[in-house]
Amino acid sequence: MKTTIHVLCALFLFATVFAPGVFAADGYFEVEEQEGRWWLIDPDGERFFSTGVNLVNPGGYYAPDLGYAPYYENIIELYGTEEAWADETFNRLSQWNFNTLGGWSDYGLLADRMPYTLVLYLSPANWQSGTVADYFSDDFYDQVAEKIASSVTPRVEDANLIGWFLDNELRWGIDWRGITDLFAEYFAFDADMPGKAALAQFLRDRYDDDVAAFNAAWGMSLVDFDELLPMTLIDPFTFDPVMSADREAFAGFVAEHYFSYSYDAIRAADPNHLIMGCRLVSWTTPIAVAEAAGRHSDVVSINHYIPWPIFQDAIVWLGGLVSIMNPTDMLAQYYELTQKPLLISEFSVRAMDSGLPNSWPPPYFFETLQTQEDRADWFEEYARATFAGGHVVGYHWFAYMDEPPEGRFDGEDSNFGLVDNWDTPWTTLVTRMTEVNADAYTWPIPGDDDVDDDVDDDVNDDVDDDADDDSDDDDSDDADDDVDDDAHDDADDDSIGDPSADSDQADDDDDDGGSCCG
């Protein structure tokens, strides 16, 4: 009898711990690797690939030229209440096989129905203008404490919360917001700022307190490293190999402090949820910063949009001069550097047949396609590439709705949405997304083809059922592929309605800069 009990216990242990696709459940989202592929694990112990959408929010984008948020005006006209909009939107996302609320969504309306992520904004920096924060100052420490008290602590036991993003698109060096590297930004700090003292101490330590060696490398004539404190002017960047290495190492030094302090502070308050980095700008993040993110994150998040090939070539060239990511196989490089699974926290593409201006970001830089069919093809290629590597645990589309043709807070006026400004779905796109999102679970796991085949059949049956329900039940979907373009053409010229808010991300989580998204 005892032998039988031992055998049954061993079989149960194998089934729950070692069997493919089944993980131990602890009530919150986790991340684990199984036979060469990383997965999020949901609170019930099931593998979970996060197919998310940013800005699932009835507030829409505030259009300064109009003085109001047109998408909000339109959905109230359509549905009467925000609650009715939320019911419709949840049903749509579920039918389209999206399972996660991305950043800046309305968690008050939807977070009890669907897993979600949340941007904390720990940094006093302004992501939009690219100002750089002093991460050694009380301003930073105080803001971390305030955000933990207001946002983290109330959600410690929320099983629907996947995890925290520390920030969004912080500037770590040269990019479209500034041509100075992080070293030059900190060098410009006043003498009494903690970050300036940290810079002087970093160089003192790097040169073993040998000021003569530093002078020889930097062409200076200091008597002591403290003489750096009142200095504020320096080249915005350098191609000198020694100085460049010092400056890149300093960026890593600052990032190490930012990520380690943030991680430790959140983990002390919240032992349950994943900490998922700061939504790095994929193309311009210094390598040393990515490495620091990997050391102090459970999952590394990146916002990964695609510029035209000529600009990709320019970034390859620039990467040979300053240590930034190489776009040749960027996701694989991020994984190699961080040794952590990746979550693509933003990606999108737009098309000209939407009738929107699509003027910002500039179409000569940012990929702009011709038709919604092109968007659907682009999405499928992008999504399947993330499945193939085994190190991506989710992707979050930007965004739920298009931007206003009059422009949002920063002038963006693009066709990034799943729905237009009148809340009509881009059916060609979302039909393809429905199919591709389901394949996140059916993509072959190395060495486990049988399990995938079984899951494939089950999920595809569900997708077929969902698609049938969608075509029968979705009143706001004028939604055949045949009428999709006509419905939008009729609305384009007059549509004022669009997306997502100049607002904060949800109920009580405010973006101090008053703007929501990247």
What does this structure look like?
The protein is an alpha/beta fold and 518 residues long. The chain is 41% helix and 10% strand. The strands form four sheets. A six-stranded parallel sheet has the order 5-4-14-11-10-9.
List descriptors.
single chain; 518 residues; alpha/beta
Task: Write the SSE topology.
Elements (H helix, E strand, L loop, with lengths): L1 H17 L11 E5 L2 E5 L5 E2 L1 E4 L16 H10 L2 H14 L4 E2 L5 H4 L5 E4 L18 H15 L8 E5 L16 H6 L6 H13 L4 H8 L22 H29 L4 E2 L4 E2 L5 H9 L4 E4 L5 H11 L10 H9 L3 E6 L2 E2 L16 E2 L2 H18 L2 E6 L29 H12 L10 H25 L7 H12 L26
Parallel strand pairs: 4-5, 4-14, 6-7, 7-8, 9-10, 10-11, 11-14, 12-13
Antiparallel strand pairs: 1-2, 2-3
Helix pairs in contact: 5-9, 9-10, 13-14, 14-15
Global morphology:
globular
In DSSP terms, counting alpha (H) and pi (I) runs of 4 or more, how many helices?
16
Which whole number gives the mean pLDDT?
Answer: 84
- Per DSSP, what share of the residues sits in E-state strands of 2 or more residues? 5-15%
Look at the helices and sheets and give the structural class: alpha/beta
Spans of at least 5 consecutive residues whose pLDDT stays below 50 are 4-20, 445-487, 489-515
Strand neighbour order, sheet with most strands: 5-4-14-11-10-9
Terminus-to-terminus distance: 63 Å
Tell me the total number of β-strands.
Answer: 14
Radius of gyration: 24 Å
N-to-C series of helices and strands: HEEEEHHEHEHEHHHHEEHEHHEEEHEHHH
* Biggest sheet statistics: 6 strands, parallel
- Percent range for helical residues? 40-55%
